[in-house]
Amino acid sequence: MRKTTLITGGAGYIGSHTALALINAGHHVLVLDNLCNSCRESIARLEQLTQTRVDFINGDIRDSILLDSIFSRYDIDAVVHFASLKSVEESVRKPLDYYANNVAGTLNLCRAMVRNDVFRLVFSSSATVYGEPVRTPIAEDFGTGKPVNPYGRTKLMIEELLTDLADSDPRWSIGLLRYFNPIGAHESGMIGEDPNGRPNNLLPCLTQVAIGRMPELTVYGCDYPTVDGTCVRDYIHVVDLAIGHLKALQVLRHNTGINFWNLGTGIGYSVLQIIHSFEDITGITIPYHFAPRRVGDIAKCWADPSKAGRELGWSAQRDLEQMIIDTWRWQSCNPQGYQSSFEIPALTALTAAK
Ligand code: NAD
Ligand code: WQD
């Protein structure tokens, strides 16, 4: 059997880009996803892009029997764990769903890993674990703060759970990747972010205004202590983020214990700077209006990514212009996300990976 990397949540936005990066680097991957926030089409697009069959299981990380059958059928030597609910707004309305899916789901996954002697894990954490930072840029040694919503608290709880686990058994090699604000899409325009329902994040909202699916962009707050009064964030290209997972998997072959890495560019842009860059690059005017501050938003957040540079040999290579070009290519080629038609060649034309 071939060594296989299990990717939970691999049909989703960041997971699909990471699956692509791993396959292109010669990994054999198995995607496990219950499709609660994604669709089978992203896997079909991956197959077209890689010209290989991508092993996919429609299932849930909370299903122990399924996990044991996966670990017995495949020679899994590492897990990249994306599967999670991720809407801040929904987490406030449905906290039990978030704790059950994210925290209990991760617990279940880790138990299955222990039962099956798999101890290398990369986890999707978030800059949200820093809470309101004391200063910027944010370095890993600031320590975690107080996340301001249930979603963020699930990420912090999982970080603590995984730290305790790594401390309890020296066989574990765990990487906690703290993403800043992922945007962009693969340069092919074939895979990208396809939020269910009304989006919450800035770039999906902005591109949906540009494509005519939303009439106007709401800019939350114009009185923050920043360059132009709007919030500043560290936007990072999803392909750079995907490569960060590849590097982490490599380094975790030798680094045991718990390892924290920020994945960001180290550069902050305000909401207005993003809107104006998008307008300059695409030539499309974005109608927007200011609204009061959104509850829970912090004024400024950007990374010190130097630890990932030193320890992973990783740094973001794609600048804001590239992020906007690729975001827009994805959205304009796929105005209805994955429901838009894209020519997929017959699967028989693809080579089987196994
Ligand atoms: P996404 O929703 O596109 O991907 C998550 C995937 O997990 C989806 O395909 C969903 O169907 C699947 N999933 C959810 N619960 C599952 C379960 N119980 N069993 C199996 N599959 C399940 O989200 P994304 O933006 O790709 O985020 C990936 C990870 O990165 C998440 O853990 C998220 O919390 C984290 N993260 C995302 C961002 C961001 O802004 N996108 C920032 C920081 C961290
Ligand atoms: C960015 C800026 C908004 C939409 C969130 C989560 C975080 C992480 C990444 C997963 C803010 C402003 C937005 C809009 C706006 N997710 N904005 N109009 O809030 O930095 O981070 O996603 O882990 O946990 O909190 O990202 O894209 O929602 O917002 O003005 O329609 O854009 O107020 O200043 P955020 P975002």
Which helices and strands occur, and which strands form pairs?
Blueprint: E1 3-8, H1 13-24, E2 28-33, H2 40-50, E3 55-58, H3 64-73, E4 75-81, H4 88-93, H5 95-115, E5 120-126, H6 150-168, E6 173-179, E7 181-183, H7 202-211, E8 217-220, E9 232-233, E10 235-237, H8 238-251, E11 257-263, E12 269-270, H9 271-282, E13 288-291, E14 300-301, H10 306-312, H11 320-333
Parallel strand pairs: 1-2, 1-4, 2-3, 4-5, 5-6, 6-11, 7-10, 8-13, 9-14
Antiparallel strand pairs: 9-12
Number of helices: 11
Low-confidence stretches: 344-354
Stated plainly, the CATH topology of the largest domain is called Rossmann fold
- Looking at the overall shape, the CATH architecture of the largest domain is 3-Layer(aba) Sandwich
Mean of pLDDT: 95
Shape: globular
What is the assigned CATH homologous superfamily of the largest domain? NAD(P)-binding Rossmann-like Domain
Structural class determined from secondary elements: alpha/beta
Strand order of the largest sheet: 3-2-1-4-5-6-11
Helical proportion, percent range: 25-40%
Count of discrete structural domains: 2
Ligands: nicotinamide-adenine-dinucleotide, UDP-4-deoxy-4-formamido-beta-L-arabinopyranose
What is the helix/strand order? EHEHEHEHHEHEEHEEEHEEHEEHH
CATH class of the largest domain: Alpha Beta
Our measurement of the CA-to-CA distance between the termini, rounded to an integer number of angstroms, reads 9 Å
Reported for the largest beta sheet, the result is:
7 strands, parallel
Q: Tally the beta strands.
A: 14
**Rg of Cα set:** 20 Å
Quote the beta fraction: 15-25%
GO molecular function, one term: UDP-glucose 4-epimerase activity
Cofactor: NAD(+)
EC number: 5.1.3.2
InterPro entries: NAD(P)-bd_dom, NAD(P)-bd_dom_sf, UDP_G4E
